[in-house]
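Last lecture ended with a question: if I hand you only a sequence, what can you say about the shape of the protein? Today we answer it with a concrete record. The protein is Ribosome-binding ATPase YchF. Below, first the input exactly as provided, then the predicted structure, then a couple of comments.
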Amino acid sequence: MSLSVGIVGLPNVGKSTLFNALLKKQQAYVANFPFATIEPNIGVVPVPDERLSKLAEVTKKSESMVNLPPEVPATVEFVDIAGLIAGASKGEGLGNKFLSHIRETSAICHVVRAFNDPEIVKQGITDPITDLDTVETELKLADFQTLEKQKDPGNTPNKELVKWWEVVGKLKDALQKGIPARDVSLSEEETKIAKSLSLLTAKPILVVLNVDENDLSRGKEIEAEFAKKMKLDLNQIVIICAKTESELSDLSAEDQKVYMKDLGIEKSGLERLIQKAFATLGLITFLTAGEKEVRAWTIKDGINAQEAAGVIHTDFIKKFIKADIVSFDDFVNFSGWKASRDLGKVRSEGRDYIMMDGEVVEFKIGT
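The predicted structure:
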């Protein structure tokens, strides 16, 4: 799916270091999947998923294969968005380019500085909340300008236009009070109208706190502290030491484990960022398992079985017959498709069935 996270931040907060560490993860991904494309400001990185290796082992055994089938993970696209300074909404710096790039992303990842380093220049004191407010203010100003440019339909009998103008006014009022579009209470109809306006502050956000290495062991405590201060959900805050992530990305998997153990952390910051970005975008995965490959497919939470089949191939939407579904645990515990079917663990679902995360699926498609 073409869903991406735009990484933004003020100068010298560690954004480039973080993005370069993500690019190193992409290089490893591309080495295994040559079809993946590389662009200088885009990193496509795999979503860590331990279920795939278990599916591969079960499939190899149940299908009497010599080798394990390839594992194809879900991915998240990160976009490095340059040019943000105070005044970007007025076109200062690379303001106009910055705003056009961020408008194309599905979510925003704010990188804020929470470390002290006298060798890295920063204007003013180190204050993550002020940094976040500075960026959000520029986005709010840009959104307000977008709404100001909307043309008043006047005294029209067109009810849709009247409703559209009401929503424009509602959003303008909120922005004038400093409230981002994402926090405005809207009906389902109003939400669709707001989406058509492509407002920057309507996008879901993540905040990366770039901390000193010594603070990593207090990660959960710091995340909880700043989630409260920034009035965000815990799932929207990720503590990272960009410098450490850069060093980790140069190590082998085994050496990474040793280094992380020394630091007192179980998962790398990048791994947690990728997983939280996936959740922030409202994504889930369904799994397929066969001799050709075991794969995690990305879908929006809430879509039905017929729509999910279309993610594999668009022709599957029209030719959809049914979906055979088994839970991941049953698939693994009962060693694959055949035994799961024999034991009655596989159920057949129609086109309107709402997909759940982690289900193993086999679509039946007509000719």
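Comments.
1. The chain has 14 helices and twelve strands.
2. The domain at 301-363 is CATH 3.10.20.30 (Ubiquitin-like (UB roll)).
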